[in-house]
UniProtKB/TrEMBL annotation:
It is an enzyme of class 3 (hydrolase). Gene3D superfamilies: DD-peptidase/beta-lactamase superfamily, STAS domain. Substrate binds at S64, N114, E160, N167, Y191, Y243, V261. Residues 316-396 form the STAS domain. This is Glutaminase. It comes from the Bacteria. The lineage of its organism: Bacteria, Bacillati, Actinomycetota, Actinomycetes, Micrococcales. One of its GO terms (biological process) is glutamate biosynthetic process. It catalyses: L-glutamine + H2O = L-glutamate + NH4(+).
Length: 415
């Protein structure tokens, strides 16, 4: 059977291929030599399955899509506090190569613009690292995210370095303002090397899936970044990943994303998928024309907008049967705050003479920490009111249900 996902991606690919608007980036001479027709799409689930179409083995330089991953690396090595002291998390509404600094502190406004990314690069690896150390550290971290050994494109690196006047200017200003102390040329050279790491569209999807999977690699199983780091990176992708088009992007597409001037776009849908698209012709904001179209369509057709949140409230109660001897409440699904609130509300409405109250968790997938606290509090109150509380929990989604004072609900085997 042809996978419906692959079939859908083929359809999307065919519908988008006709779009030939936009221009190649030419401020880096080597990028102007790219084949404008190349086009590829890849999607990796957090279970580690990749679907791809088009020229999915074709490598291109990662460019600005390196920024969220370098941010993840710096956060991992130095911690959020040290990084936040140097680089903020506010969108700029300005182009990626502006010197957008926060008034008062002089912090670059976020790590997705060049000023922020150059500063982040200065904080990679150990303090006082050499240019080579920082560059190697970056390739190594990106390779762990991709699950394969990545390399740098020497000719794009040299081509950009020769024409990197604007990035040198930014770095000198940043150093002059005391944002970092490292040698400005060395930091820019390292940053340009970071941007010249080669990936294909499948790598992007896999790297994205690692962030979607809260930092755990979907096939190597390695924890590459912590949950907190993955969340922080995605938060900044939401507010600043698509430069000055970030607001429109989030309202239309609703997928945390990052684009680069070589024509790639990375998208990450937390808990679901990583997506990579590559097509080199860019719109005036510097985002791939076909890439933007693919993401718009994917979001609409597959309902991937982050704010298409599921309903987490009363549907956590599957059924309630009130008998003469006992009341059974069957719960289901993933229970979070609003689901637990609905359960407590229903418990309160069951006020009756002390009797047996059975809670069947057989169909519950997970209770998060808040829901667990609330649910246990509800059970504690029922017990205090003189009810006999029983729990059916074959998969132990509620381990150690201590109601305080070493009181536990009575375990009942699955009926
Ligand atoms: N938007 C981008 O992809 C920019 C990256 C590029 N290396 C630069 O600094 O100009």
């Amino acid at each position: 059977m042809e996978s419906p996902v692959r079939k859908y991606l083929h359809q999307l690919f065919n519908d988008t291929t006709a779009m030939d608007g936009g221009d190649l980036a030419d401020y880096i001479p080597e990028l102007a030599k790219a084949d404008p027709e190349v086009f590829s799409i890849a999607l990796t689930t957090i279970d580690g399955r990749t679907y791809s179409v088009g020229d999915d083995e074709r490598e291109f330089t990662i460019q600005s899509i390196s920024k969220p991953f370098a941010y993840a690396s710096a956060l991992t090595d130095r911690g959020l506090e040290a990084i936040s002291a140097k680089v903020g998390v506010e969108p700029t509404g300005e182009a990626f190569n502006e010197l957008s600094l926060e008034k008062g502190t002089n912090r670059p406004k976020n790590p997705m613009i060049n000023a922020g990314a150059i500063t982040i690069h200065s904080m990679l690896a150990e303090p006082d690292s050499s240019l080579e150390d920082r560059a190697n550290h970056t390739v190594e971290f990106f390779s762990r995210l991709a699950g394969r050994k990545l390399e740098m494109d020497e000719s794009v690196f040299r081509s950009e370095l020769e024409t990197a006047d604007r990035n040198f200017a930014l770095a000198h200003m940043l150093r002059n303002l005391g944002v970092f102390e490292e040698h400005a040329h060395q930091v820019v050279a390292g940053y340009v090397a970071q941007c010249a790491i080669k990936v294909n569209v499948r790598d992007l999807a896999v790297m994205g899936a690692t962030l979607a999977n809260r930092g755990m690699h979907p096939f190597t199983g390695e924890r590459v970044a912590s949950r907190d780091v993955a969340r922080q990176v995605l938060a900044v992708m939401v507010s600043a990943g698509m430069y000055d088009a970030s607001g429109t992007w989030f309202s239309d597409v609703g997928i945390p994303a990052k684009s680069g001037v070589s024509g790639g776009i990375l998208g990450v849908l937390p808990g679901q998928v990583g997506i990579g698209v590559f097509s080199p012709r860019l719109d005036p904001k510097g985002n791939s024309v076909r890439g933007v179209n693919v993401f718009n369509k994917l979001s609409q057709d597959m309902g991937l907008h982050l704010l298409n949140a599921g309903i987490f409230g009363s549907n956590t109660i599957r059924s309630v049967s009130e008998g003469d001897d006992e009341t059974v409440m069957r719960l289901q699904g993933v229970i979070q705050f609003s689901g637990a609130e609905a359960i407590l509300h229903r418990m309160a409405s069951l006020e009756c003479d002390p009797g047996t109250m059975v809670f069947d968790l057989t169909k519950v997938t997970r209770l998060d920490a808040m829901a667990r606290r609330m649910f246990l509090e509800g059970l504690r109150r029922l017990t205090a009111d003189g009810h006999r509380v029983e729990l059916i929990d074959p998969d132990e989604v509620l381990p150690d249900p201590d109601l305080g004072g070493s009181t536990y609900p009575i375990r009942r085997e699955t009926p």
